[in-house]
Amino acid sequence: MDKKQEDLLARIQEKYEAIGQDQMTHLEGLVHAKPITYWDYIQTDALLNLQTQRTTLKDEMVFIMYHQINELLFKMILWEIEQVATQESLTTAFFAERLGRISRYFDMLSSSFEIMGEGMEVEQYMKFRNTLTPASGFQSAQYRKIEFASTELINLIDNRFRATIDRNTPFQHAFDHLYWQAAGKDHKTGKKSTLLNLFEERYMDDFIVFMQTYNTMNLWTKFKSLPEADQQNVSLRNAMRHYDHTVNVRWVMAHYNAAAKYLDSGKESAEATGGSDWHKYMHPKYQKRIFFPGLWTEEELKNWGIDNLDGYEALI
């Protein structure tokens, strides 16, 4: 046995001794283990059997698979955010590198809306969408968690109520005044729609815990906890700004434009499946949702969602 083999066996023994296991038992198990295959590792069969149509319209399959791909990318984004949030010795290089990954996922999401905008027949969509009511992309729990994990809660509160909410406000009260609550309530009576009631019944308890967890470890808070010199790091600030603009303007506008093709087609009522006034709810100039407000100038904040902010990354 050469030294490389001896070193390897010593490392294996050290690994299993650390968890109170016998290395020989595990090595013997390898004798009987099946070789891994791509389809077993990726769980291809399970993945390809997760699409269940509710109609006979062919383009519904495009719609289902596209949203499932979105959810997988959302999971990747949350995975990267968690690494920043839980990193004990956070460096600007690590922070910027992970933000770069996250932004690339959202770049992919933004550009992929052509699959929706150009990849389905309007006539088919306007028929099968009626079978989806009251379901809506509004109900993506992972997307809401991305928001909670990205910024301080006050930046997700409806502008009309921000002055009444601070860090001492109960999380339940803050939850009831999040910006997206407006899309699920009757603006005259304040009554919650079925869309919102079902969403809260399924996820609200989980959201409250998640909000509490990320209250002091969201990306914006983590950034502000860095030494002042690190906060002025151009690469990190550019990465933060790119992420903010990509999620809250580019991604939103890509979604808005894709929806416009179908809902403004004149074929049916231009109302979202959840029943919201989607023009005002979706457009960033109305939402004014900004994860990292301290990294933008007054002019940029004023023109959020109106000006395309060409050159918004140029901080040097």
Structure notes:
- There is one protein chain.
- Helix 5 packs antiparallel against helix 6 (92-111).
- 59% of the residues lie in helices and 0% in strands.
- With 316 residues, the chain is an all-alpha fold.
- The longest helix has 30 residues, at 234-263.
The sequence of SSEs as H and E is HHHHHHHHHHHHHHHHH
- Biggest sheet layout: none
Alpha carbon gap, first and last residue: 58 Å
**Residue runs with pLDDT of under 50 for 5 or more positions:** none
Structural class: mainly alpha
Radius of gyration: 23 Å
The CATH architecture assignment turns out to be Up-down Bundle
Number of domains: 1
Question: What is the count of β-strands?
Answer: 0
